[in-house]
Amino acid sequence: MTRRIRKAVFPVAGLGTRFLPATKTVPKEMLPIVDRPLIQYAVDEAIEAGCDTLVFVTNRYKHSVADYFDKAYELEDKLERAGKAEQLEMIRNPLPSHVRTVFVTQPEALGLGHAVLCARPVVGDEPFAVMLPDDLIWNAGPGALAQMADHAEKTGAGVIAVQDVPRERTSSYGIVATDGFQDRHGAIRGMVEKPNPEDAPSTLGVVGRYVLQPGIFDALESTGRGSGGEIQLTDAIASMIADGSRHDAYRFQGTRFDCGTHIGLIEATIRFALDHEKLSEPARASMQKALDELAVAEHD
Ligand code: G1P
To answer: Domain range spanning residue 64?
Structure first.
């Protein structure tokens, strides 16, 4: 057994241009899925996996992410006076008392690898998680990161979440090559960032959950610009693997929604609405109504 992760890094300095105009003023991590912003789902998953230190790599446009995890005295006061106990409870303790947040600045958008490197002074010399909040993972049982953290703790390996992706989509993902899988994990032989379909070594795409060993920071220091002219986390992991460091691809249990795309955000909203204690029935009814009305409109 090795050390379990305690720290999770959330790179949230991206521009979110895909969701303009909404993201002109609202960071994409704050877009809601039903009643909670995307970032909340990733944070909950990290805490469930055992993390007590959340490191947000952010920039000057993302103040609302910090505000979200801060105390809102005025609002609390108003809700208290209005006797709105349920709403008060929702905002009073955004995080359990044992969890702390740290905000680190990524002054320039130099890529995911660079964002992770910015967290080095906070993470130090221990294994840690990287979570990309765009990737929202729904699971009835333990969250994806908890599954991966268990595996990392047992093996001491770096662990990278993967799922099968259509070949025509490989250029949107880090793609890994393995020598096959045992249960849910397989040692990675090679890894390449966003290859064209004809060059992709497989169709196993990296999903935004990583458990990394601290050696990644030295690897990142010596990683030059790669795909898209950015410093890529994939390239640093690939160089560690080439140097003999064990990294396992992990087929997590759960459904991943790519909330970095419009359709992914819609799919996630549908799924979480249908799975919601109070909204499930009305959501189902309203989806049916919308489909029926559209079918009639098409006939007219
Ligand atoms: C990042 C990673 C990529 C990974 C993807 C998963 O890319 O660089 O390897 O497959 O996240 O969401 P991005 O989508 O940020 O361009």
So the answer is: 7-260
